[in-house]
Design a protein that fits this description.
5 helices, 8 strands, about 20% strand, alpha+beta, 2 domains, about 40% helix, four-stranded mixed beta sheet, four-stranded antiparallel beta sheet, single chain
Length: about 200
Amino acid sequence: MAITNYGELKTAVAEWVNREDDDEILARVPDFIRMAEARIYRELRCPANEATVASDSYSTSAGAPLPADYLEMRSVRWDGIVLDRISDRDNRQYLAGETPRYFARRGSYLRLYPTPSSAGELELNYWQDQSGLSADSDTCNVLAVAPDLYLYASLIEAEPFLENEARLPLWQHKYQQALEQIQDMAERDELSGGVMAVRSAY
């Protein structure tokens, strides 16, 4: 069956562990998927979970809040100029001037150095956490391009609960294989400047 949304993913997980008529297991499937999402977004970095936001609002005292779905920064631009990353602990030597050339993370905020003396556009390109599927119709970019990754990660979480560890190495291998294929495609895309299209392998 096709897996295009959260409802179809739940159904597929139950079918693949052969427990689609077991109410106790059906009630646990959302937990398996939540743990699978945590695993996926700790590891996955590809165009499907890449996002860009722009803002003309920057607080000179606090900085700019990071997006709620922020995982890791790819690049930061101020008025179209790419900034270099520094550690916020070592910012003193970068304070002089009026135009930002560097950025650093401080907690859940992004700080620019030197602090901008006038308004400008701040653009963040970052890796995005797309977890949190809840309604049956919910979907996301990663699920759309790599449903196999979601399925195998969910099965990794399901099998120990079912006391069926014998199948665990199979799903771990399939998950790792899918993850590596996606990452390899992302790397080739980065080098070639093309558009990534991931084929479902499940």
